[in-house]
Q: What sequence folds into this?
């Protein structure tokens, strides 16, 4: 492996430490190398804190070494003032002579300006390096800025014979909600919730299962709960309105039901391009990623609108014989693995 690729891979590894905390900033990783020795590392702090480059430079004990060091970073350094000063200013001030960048930043405030600022200051800039791997790592950030919508993950569990939920008769015999996947898969779902900014469900899923939609068995912030409730049918004492996480309810423009305590109510026109409208509104709210958990019709609506990037499907070992059929989806399978009694399939929408 070439040396530049080696350390950009390390940047990606470091950047993953920011998953679930950095948005709307990207989860960048940074490595500083001098005489083939790593003298500093860093990743993006939670939103409002230092960027990866600042954390990496601050971690260097002997700052005199920076004048002969190479800085590796997974995404182009910013050159504008936001919550923090431009990273390019600190890199230039530190005297670092060479910067290796994995991927150019598509954000309109950066988009090559960081590279230009570094080169103008006489710094050697090498890019792109492992561009495809960096694109995958920064997929949420890139989708948000290039497609003007959140990165969308569809998630559901289905029985071995292809049902997302059993018949009402079978549900009455079992406690609610009716689980298909095992406890290890359920914990993994809570990890995913802590990694993404929002989670979305339809009315029937809430009425039938009364889910909390928060992260309980994993350390991390619970996502914004997004609920589609066209006619404001969901009672105010349901779990999605508790104080464990924020809730956003999309309802029909002509609904005149009671305002739910502890939730923001957003009226939209359910008769016209609902998925696109929701994606646009979430984009305006700076939501970069969302998990769509169901039910079946909600998932199908996103599939039909071609508004999805990943599908994560758990297949349990039980059979229902009848019930609500799981969505049908065709895409490239990028991963398939066993989680105890379950099979997890991850599909990518290319």
A:
């Amino acid at each position: 492996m070439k040396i530049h690729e080696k350390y950009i891979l390390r940047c990606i590894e470091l950047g993953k430490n920011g998953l679930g905390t950095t948005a709307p900033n990207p989860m960048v990783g940074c490595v500083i190398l001098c005489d083939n020795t790593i003298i500093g590392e860093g990743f993006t702090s939670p939103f409002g804190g230092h960027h990866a480059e600042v954390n990496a430079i601050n971690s260097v004990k002997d700052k005199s070494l920076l004048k002969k060091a190479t800085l590796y970073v997974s995404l182009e350094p910013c050159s504008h003032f936001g919550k923090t000063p431009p990273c390019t200013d600190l890199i230039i001030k530190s005297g670092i002579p060479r910067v290796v960048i994995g991927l150019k930043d598509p954000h309109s405030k950066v988009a090559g300006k960081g590279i230009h600022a570094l080169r103008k200051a006489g710094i050697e800039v090498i890019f792109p390096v492992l561009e495809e791997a960096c694109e995958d790592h920064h997929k949420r950030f890139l989708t948000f800025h290039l497609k003007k919508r959140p990165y969308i993950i569809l998630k559901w569990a289905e029985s071995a014979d292809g049902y997302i939920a059993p018949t009402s008769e079978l549900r009455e015999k079992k406690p609610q909600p009716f689980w298909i996947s095992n406890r290890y898969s359920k914990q993994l779902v809570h990890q995913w919730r802590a990694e993404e900014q929002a989670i979305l469900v339809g009315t029937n899923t809430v009425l039938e299962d009364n889910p909390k939609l928060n992260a309980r068995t994993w350390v991390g912030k619970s996502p914004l709960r997004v609920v589609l409730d066209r006619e404001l049918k969901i009672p105010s004492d349901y779990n999605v309105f508790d104080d464990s996480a924020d809730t956003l309810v999309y309802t029909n423009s002509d609904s005149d039901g009671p305002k739910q305590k502890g939730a923001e109510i957003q009226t939209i026109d359910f008769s016209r391009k609902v998925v696109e409208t929701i994606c646009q509104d979430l984009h305006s709210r700076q939501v970069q990623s969302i998990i769509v958990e169901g039910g079946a019709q909600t998932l199908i609506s996103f599939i039909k609108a071609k508004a999805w990037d990943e599908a994560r499907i758990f297949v349990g070992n039980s059979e229902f014989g009848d019930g609500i059929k799981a969505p049908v989806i065709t895409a490239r399978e990028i991963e398939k693995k066993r989680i105890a009694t379950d099979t997890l399939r991850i599909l990518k929408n290319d």
Observations:
- The chain has a mean pLDDT of 92.
